Amino acid sequence: MSSTTNEPVVLYHHPFSRASGTLWALEEVGVPYELRFVDIMKGAQKAPELVALNPMGKIPVLTHGDAVVTEAAAIALYLADRFSFGTLAPRVDDPARGAYLRWSLFPSAVIEPAVAAKTNGWSSKESQVGWGTYATMLDAIERAVSDRKYVAGDAFTMADVVLGGTLRYMLMVKQLDTRPAFTAYLERVGGRPALGRADQRNAKAVKDHGLRMPSS
After folding, report:
1. Could you tell me if 77 and 121 lie in one domain?
2. pLDDT in tens, 26-65
3. Are residues 162 and 104 in the same domain?
4. pLDDT given for residue 5 in this prediction
5. Which residue from 175, 193, 105 is spatially nearest to 138, judged by alpha carbons?
6. Looking at the domain assignment, is residue 216 inside a domain?
7. How many Cβ atoms are within 10 Å of 5's Cβ, its own excluded?
8. Which residue segment(s) compose the domain that 187 sits in?
9. In-domain check, residue 2
10. CATH no. for residue 76?
11. Which residues of the chain fall below pLDDT 50?
12. In Å, how far are 37, 169, 215 from 142, measured between CA atoms?
């Protein structure tokens, strides 16, 4: 049985997890959705019902009818293809589709492991790891956000939600060195009404559940 646009969209969510960024993607596509709070501070993401959906025991998890999608970037791509194909998701014959896919996957495939390697002092040869080096990763991002308005061209796409959300968070928690081009790019994407609505929903979840950000 296939999912239809009329079937419920459910996000398993905690505002201090990657699911917080998935809210931006949901607000951009503009479909009704339900949030199901998962108390990750108490390990609820490892409960049998969550592990049945995602054997990794992590969130975000999104369900849409019979479809189950995990991994934040995959969820964002799914939502754009399913509900905003041709706008937030460039069509398959659009040359922008290549950059769209590239920069949607770049955060999880390159930015996060490169930052982790730098933070933890991992030693590796650039040619033997997919993320290259921390410095080349920064240079690649700078080039992507400097020579065009958005990462896939003149039009805002879901790739900007994925990349922009990653940069926004990592710069906020000082995991990533900043550059003027990063700041300018985040100013371009930061005024999205959908991002404002997502921030409000995350803030409401924090308040409703009496949460405090854990100390590092």
Report:
1. no
2. 999 999 999 999 999 999 999 999 999 999 999 999 999 9
3. yes
4. 60
5. 175
6. no
7. 10
8. 96-192
9. no
10. 3.40.30.10
11. 1-2
12. 36, 17, 31
